[in-house]
Fold this protein.
Amino acid sequence: MSHTRNLLLAGVVLASTAGLARAEMAATTMTDIDVRSGPGQQYPAIGTATRGSDAVLDGCIEGSRWCRIDVNGMRGWVYAQYLSVEQDGSPVVVQEHSADLGVPVVTYQQTDEMSVGSVAPDVAQPGPNDELIGPVDQVDAITPPETVTTYVESNPVSAVQLQGDVVVGATLPQGVRVGTIPDYQYSYTRINGQQVLVDPGTHRIVYVYN
């Protein structure tokens, strides 16, 4: 059994009593997304689910954007904002409609095998020939609030050197570690000396600090 599979099994996930009536829901991935072994960026990706993949939604963590799904032979965690569920014949985003959809609530119990905030030992580091990919798809640049800018400047992360242009829409290699920002949907890192904000679900750059 692989280390990644062990990490996935290490977390004990329990559906709430309220969610047992709908233990499974059909969902669809809205974009290419990483499926992770736990509900957080510190957990390694076990694979990528392509846009439009059929998935089974177990449930989401209350007050969090993370949901557990079965998709393309993988069982892991993805962001609710990249999942849609059909409601009254139309697809709706899970993150925006979890309450009225009746999405089950699940919990994730951390074990000693991986503590909160740790980085998985098998996460690859970017090599000297790794490069930024893209921009493949058009990505709308965002304007971060001042509180986010202050947090990023006050909590610097290690710089990563990559080939390619640091532009909005470029995609980071999987080995690049990103920092989380409290109460904010995007992560951040420093590429080629430039601070950037990153969509954690797609690894695409959404803002570049000049």
Residues 1-23, 111-129 have pLDDT under 50 and may be disordered. Residues 146-154 form the longest helix (9 residues). Residues 171 and 203 are 5 Å apart (CA to CA).
